Each structure stands twice: as structure tokens, then as C-alpha cells.
Amino acid sequence: MRDPNQQKSGDCNVTEIYFEDYVLDATRETLGRTITETDIVLHAGQTGDFFPHHMDAEWCKTQDFKLRMAHGTLTFSVAVGATATLVNPCAVSYGYDRLRFLKPVFIGDTIRVKVTITEKRDHKLPGHGLVCEQLEVFNQRKETVLVCTHLLLVKRRGA
Amino acid sequence: MRDPNQQKSGDCNVTEIYFEDYVLDATRETLGRTITETDIVLHAGQTGDFFPHHMDAEWCKTQDFKLRMAHGTLTFSVAVGATATLVNPCAVSYGYDRLRFLKPVFIGDTIRVKVTITEKRDHKLPGHGLVCEQLEVFNQRKETVLVCTHLLLVKRRGA
Amino acid sequence: MRDPNQQKSGDCNVTEIYFEDYVLDATRETLGRTITETDIVLHAGQTGDFFPHHMDAEWCKTQDFKLRMAHGTLTFSVAVGATATLVNPCAVSYGYDRLRFLKPVFIGDTIRVKVTITEKRDHKLPGHGLVCEQLEVFNQRKETVLVCTHLLLVKRRGA
Amino acid sequence: MRDPNQQKSGDCNVTEIYFEDYVLDATRETLGRTITETDIVLHAGQTGDFFPHHMDAEWCKTQDFKLRMAHGTLTFSVAVGATATLVNPCAVSYGYDRLRFLKPVFIGDTIRVKVTITEKRDHKLPGHGLVCEQLEVFNQRKETVLVCTHLLLVKRRGA
Amino acid sequence: MRDPNQQKSGDCNVTEIYFEDYVLDATRETLGRTITETDIVLHAGQTGDFFPHHMDAEWCKTQDFKLRMAHGTLTFSVAVGATATLVNPCAVSYGYDRLRFLKPVFIGDTIRVKVTITEKRDHKLPGHGLVCEQLEVFNQRKETVLVCTHLLLVKRRGA
Amino acid sequence: MRDPNQQKSGDCNVTEIYFEDYVLDATRETLGRTITETDIVLHAGQTGDFFPHHMDAEWCKTQDFKLRMAHGTLTFSVAVGATATLVNPCAVSYGYDRLRFLKPVFIGDTIRVKVTITEKRDHKLPGHGLVCEQLEVFNQRKETVLVCTHLLLVKRRGA
Q1: Lower CB count within 10 Å: N or C terminus of chain E?
Q2: Residue F2: pLDDT over 70
Q3: Chain D: nearest CA to A20, how far in angstroms?
Q4: From CA B147, how far away is CA B76, in angstroms rounded?
Q5: DSSP code of residue A156
Q6: What is the largest CA-CA distance in chain C?
Q7: Is F107 left (phi over 0), alpha (psi -120 to 50) or beta?
Q8: If interface means Cβ-Cβ distance under 8 Å, which residues of chain A face chain F?
């Protein structure tokens, strides 16, 4: 258990986790996060993607989906960010595989992310292995809206 | 050529491009975009990822990379957004494959994206095909910092 | 027609249009953009204008217009930005004439801009001419909410 | 009275007010400011506090307070900012005492601040005194949502 | 003089100024405001104008002006916002004339605005007149970077 | 120890800590956070405090402190936010005492927060006690820039 009494100076939120420490099928889940109109406007502003799917409520009314939806990169970025609660100095983000947008995320939807360690494999970089985390993003109706596989390049113990 | 005299009312930036219209190996390139400290602070704010790699200049000085770097999701989102210049009502974004972070992007780096149509394949959804665009993100030193493959689900003509 | 297959490396979104190329009465129209509460809060934050017309929903209820309205400079900036889809290296923005706020823009209104080339005239700068674009900003009820005339200083061919 | 005709070049919004000029029990009141969803999202982004009380509408529904609420530091910052209308070169902000969060501030609440000079006392810094301003923050139902005492270190005349 | 002791409850920053109260040639000057990289990135995000003049430091190096410059609408909006220090319930903003961009504003430039009442004229709206304010925006080298004329529609006394 | 393998579904970052669990003199320390120009511009935008101390680099050069400094409420908000890493459903924030601004925080300074449990005392609310956390905010030169005491109202076990 992590509690405010046991934490030592300087190591709050930082924990070394080596390749060997990752356990297949282990899962964790993030806090929920409501996607707001603000998030969409800010993400359009950050990326320059002002497509009417995100920014034109009138046009959206004429489409099948009816409502402005979050950019795929917004849902992805927020989901990934939600998992970033613990700094692991032994790992770097290597990339993502099979990122899929399964359902639209609308203004007011609340997402949460379930992370599962699905694979551990060797890597050509000496002293390292590759850990695969499956990210599943759910909305408040328990529908999966986005999935992807996060590849982490992680140091081995004693390497 | 697109020019202000030929544009008709209501169709600016919207063009229907069907599955058949995509040509293998065709390429386009985006405008450049300098990644600023502001982008990193805003992206941390949007995603909640305040890892010291992005937000603690003092800690970064103690690391091999020395400088605060852009979040992977930031570079990805900005790159994808830069390609979003033309609304194609026939296409929806299906997902991304093989997203890889090849080099760090630092504050002040300027990125540009080259898009190449690399594959066209059938899809189980009747009347649609899958178009694969390779996104290559370069910095001002012509180094590739990020690659990924964008999958577009596109209507076929007459479908 | 602009399509992803015909674009050459490096020239996406950049087109040289000379003074002689502009055609009187030619028009184009932008995509729609919904003005959100977020836009108003961000614009107040950027400009420092926290007048109750924009920021105090309770006070607005006591006024004739009842609802928080967009800053004039917000509607103007968003409208001008919406027209900025094509970089023309031959032109620089010279200024604006007769900017008028005709109707309030409220949270949730969706605006679109119609641009018409209304005048071409000589300019004292050798090798240049002045092109006047009329910007008309409409809301979703087809009401004109803002008009202005944009003056572009444009190179002549062979100058 | 301050009016646009009486203002001299360069002194707009800047007035020297010495320790002796502050009058006990004098009060002033700020303009109103509606706290928006945007403010909460931006404040989460600035501070990194993404607690579900502020960011997860679904979780909030399961709590007694039902609705997402403003961060305490948001209400405090906006309230303090609302009082910052006049630069006094004779004063610096020394700190705050007895900051209390009395009621939650929800999205859509409009706050205003009443400032009362409640105390003037000596300070060890030669030529200065301490002025205490009581800040009371009200919502649109006249409920006090936050109180605090602002300590100003102010120059004495002739010091 | 405006000071914290003389202000009455509820009227801080609000003053009724009628058409007759405006004095020709009266001037006021705003506080200074440094235009930052942040302002440019936020304004691009708000307006969707990601032109390389503002967002691509590498491209700017190849141009005569060398440095990223503020959007014209940014300088205009910030300048106008800086003048918005006093709510006058008798006036509404009618529009702007002769807005001209005289010199580029670069990151790090500090602007200030001088406002001069240059004209008072009748208006067709019964009980109102038109007041013209000249806004001159200076940088830290006392160069005029932007000018415009603000038209205010103002109630007459006893109307 | 907290690691990704031991976390169960739904309880990531949420831990119940009762009044009895807090241990006097226990300390924890946050990650570092560089205060950027962006933070100051955003905080001015959120609060409406555009005082030249924060926003006018030219004026700052004429003052003893020479450089634009962070708003007190910015440093306070960021510091408090940095401590918000663990949701404790047993505690609510009651307020702050003795908030003092000891040294200015400039653009580029990196702050970290040390939290020490300094006092536990009874509270009139049945079944609750008050826990006092001292927050000390340091810059990269180990100088204390801000201190305050956070009061937490915490449930007792079995209450």
C-alpha cells in the first residue's frame, strides 16, 4: 500500500520496475475522465484539425452520428496520459501497435482505461526486453471505444 | 490547381475521394510546425502526463537526452493534425499500425510529415476498401522522428 | 481539383496567386465552426477582456441579450482564421476596413465565412496591387453577424 | 471618478496607495465571473490535479455533491485575480491567512468577491506596514463559498 | 482618483459615461503586454491559422523577416483587450475602421496602446451618438505596429 | 510498493487513509515541475491578472527583480496540484493557513514540494479529525519560495 507516511523524500511516484518484474495478465485500471467540449476545442487548437466532425455542431446534426465527436488522437492521448501515474526509470515507450477506433467518443462521455500485460518478449537491444501492454478504453456504458497495444522497452535486472 | 476564384460556395476544403481514386505511391507533404514549450505544457495539461521527461528541466539535465522532450502522443497528434487539410466525406479513420517513436522531439524542433499511399486492400465492410497511408515525421535535420501507418476505411465508387 | 495523389512533395497548401490571378466577384466559403463557451473563456484569457458580457452569465440574464456573447475580436479572429487555408507567398495582409458587428454571436452558434473578391486597385508599392476581399460571417440561421473588408497587398506577375 | 477623458498618458490602472491611505472597513466589490467547465479543465491542466471530483462526471453522480466541482485553488485563483484591477506600486502581496473552502463551486456558478480592509498593523520592515484585506467570495445565491485574508506589505508615506 | 477606500459595493470597474462626457483629444494609455510564443500558439489554436509565418521557425529563417510573427488578429485582439478596463453600460462596440498592420510583432515584443478620442458624430439611432477612438499600438522601440479606429455607439444623456 | 502487477481493477490511485493512519512527521516529496512562460500566460488568462509583474518584460527590466515572475496563486496552485497524486476518499480539503510568498518564482525555475504531517487535532464534526500538512515549495537552488499549511478534514476509523 502506498500511503503518505511511508513515502521517503524524493521518491514519490517513481519506482524502478524491471523486465522481470512485469507479470503476464496483471491488470490495472485508471481513474475516469470525462471528455468535454473544452478538450475537443483544445485538441483542435493543438493539432490544427478543425474538421467539422469535431467543430461544427450544425453539420454534425446532418450526419448519422449527430453529435460532435472527439478526435481519435484526443481519445488516444487522454487514455495514454491517464495511465502515466508512475514513473519507471527502467522503461521507455517504444511505440504502439493495432490502435483502433471502435466507437465514437462524444462530449460528456467518461472514459477509463484498463491496462493488461499481454506479452513479454526479447529485444535486440542488449539487456532489454519488450513488454506489451494492452490498453482498452471504455466509456460509461462499458463499451470499448479504443484499443491499442503499448510497447515498452524495459531494462533487465543486472543488465 | 486550387485558387480562390474557382472555389464554389460551400465546397472549400471538402472533396470526395473514393477508394478507386487513391493511387499507390502518391505522396504529399505538410507544412512545417515548430514544437514549442507551449505545446508540451498544453499537452501535459490535456493528458495529465506530467512526467519529468516533459516538465522538469532540471531533472532532464541529469539524463542522457539533457532536454525536455515532447510526449510521444503530442508528436503523433500534431503530425496527424497537420495532414488534416482536406475533408473527404468518403473516408473514416480506422486506426493506426506500427506507430514508432524513433527519435526524441525537443522544444524548438520543427516537424513536417510526408504521407505516402502504401497499400490498398479489401475490407469486409461491403462497398468499402482499406487505404494505408504511411506517415513519416521529419525534424529540421531530416531525421525521421516518428512513423506510423494510417488506415482509412474508404467508400468505393458506386457502392 | 486537389487530391492526395496529385500533390507534390513540399507544396501542399502553398500556391502562388498573383494580382492578375484574382477574379472580381469570385467567391469561396469556409467550413463551419461552432463558437463554444471554451472559445470565449480562452479569448478572455488571451486578451484580458473579462467584461461581464462574456464572463458573467448571471449579469447577462438581466440584459436584453440574455446570454453571454462572443467578444467581437473573437468572432473576427475565428472568421479570419477560417479563411486561412491556402498559403499564398505573393500576398501579405495589409489591413481591414469597415469591420462591423451586426449581431451578437452566442455560445453554440455556428459561423461560416463567405469571401468575395470585391475590388482590385493599384498601390503605390511598385509591382504590387491591392485586392479587397469582402468577408461576410453568417450564423446557422443565415443571419449576417459580422462583415469586414480584407485588404491584401499582392505581387504582380513579372514584377 | 475614473473616466477616459481624465486619464493621463501612461498612468492608466496604476495608482500609488500608501499605508496611510488605506481606510479600515472600506470595501469594494469585483465584477461577477461564471466558473465554467472550461475553467476546471484548464485548471486541471495547469496544476495536474485530475481528481475525479473535478474531471469524472460519472463518479460525481455517485457522490453526495452529484456534480463536478471547481478545484479549491481554482476558485481561490479566480477570486484573487478578480481583485487585481489596479496596480499599486507601493504594495506587494505578502501572503494569505485562514483560507477556507466553505461551499463547493459548481460549473455554471457565478462568483463575485467583496474585499474589506479589516486591519492595519506595523511590520518589522522599516517604512512599511501590513494591510489585511478580507476576501469573501459569494456565488449567485449569495452564499459565501470561500473566505481568506490577504496580507499586503505596503510602503508608508515619506519612508 | 480611484482608490480601494472610495469604491462602493457593486460598482467597481463600472462607470456610466454618456456621449456628452467624451472629450475630443482626451487620451489614455494601457499597461504594457509582452507578446509571447504562448500567445501565438494559443491564437493559432483558437483561429486555426497555422500559417508558417507564425508556426514554422525554420521557414521563417528563410524569409526577410527571419522570425515567427504574431497573427494580425492576435495583435489586434490583445490591443483591444488591453483597453477593456472599464465597463461603460452606455456604450456598445459598433465596429472598427482603417485597421492597418504597420510593422510585424515578434515573440518578445512588448506592446502598449494609446487611445485618443478623435471624433464625435451623430448617429441615426435616436438618443445615441458615435464616438471614434483612435487606437495606436506601440512596441518597446516606440514604433507604431498597428492602428485602427474604434467606433462606439454611446447613449446621450436624457435619451 | 506500488507496481503494475499488484493493482486491482478500479482502485488505481485511490487509497483510503483514515485519521488514525496519518503519522506525525511523515514526509513525502513531489516530482519537480518547471514553471514556464506558458504557465504564466495561462494563469493570467485564467485569473484575469495581467499585472506587469507577470506580463510586461520591459517594465520588469526596470524593477529590482528584473524578470517576469509567477503569480503567487500560480505557484500555490501548481504546488498543491503536484501533491494531488493519490485520491483519499476519507479526506476533504478544509483550507490553508499561513500561506507565505517567500521568494519570487521566475520563468525557468523548477519547483518541488515537500509535504510534512505536522499536526493532528480534534474537530467538532463527529467522527472526524483535522490533519495539518506543511507544504514547503523549493526551487532548484533549494531556496524555499512558498510555504503553507494544508488542513485536511479526515474520517476516523469506525466513525
Answers
A1: N
A2: no
A3: 31
A4: 9
A5: P
A6: 60
A7: beta
A8: 1-15, 17, 21-23, 26-31, 85-87, 114-115, 117
Predicted TM-score (pTM) of this structure: 0.95
Query: CB C42 to CB E46 under 8 A?
Result: yes
Structural domains of chain A ordered from first start: 6-155 (3.10.129.10)
Conformational region of residue D95, where left means phi above 0, alpha means psi within -120 to 50, and beta covers everything else: left
What is the ipTM metric for this complex? 0.93
* Amino acid making up residue C5: N
Residue linked to cell 488522437: A73
Partner residue facing D34 (CB), from C38, C42, C57: C57
A37·C33 Cβ contact <8 A: no
Give the closest-approach CA distance of D50 to chain E in angstroms: 22
SS (H, E, C) chain E: CCCCCCCCCCCCCECCCCHHHCCCCCEEECCCEECCHHHHHHHHHHHCCCCHHHHCHHHHHCCCCCCCECCHHHHHHHHHHHCCCCECCCEEEEEEEEEEECCCCECCCEEEEEEEEEEEEECCCCCEEEEEEEEEEECCCCCEEEEEEEEEEEECCCC
Judged against a pLDDT cut of 90, whether residue C10 lies above it is answered with: no
pLDDT tens digits, one per residue of E99-122: 999 999 999 999 999 999 999 999
Supply the DSSP symbol for A76: H
C23 and B9 within 8 Å at the Cβ level: the answer is no
Residues 6+ away with beta carbon under 8 Å from F73 = D73, D76, D77, D80, D81, F43, F47, F49
CA angle F46-F52-F57, nearest 5°? 110
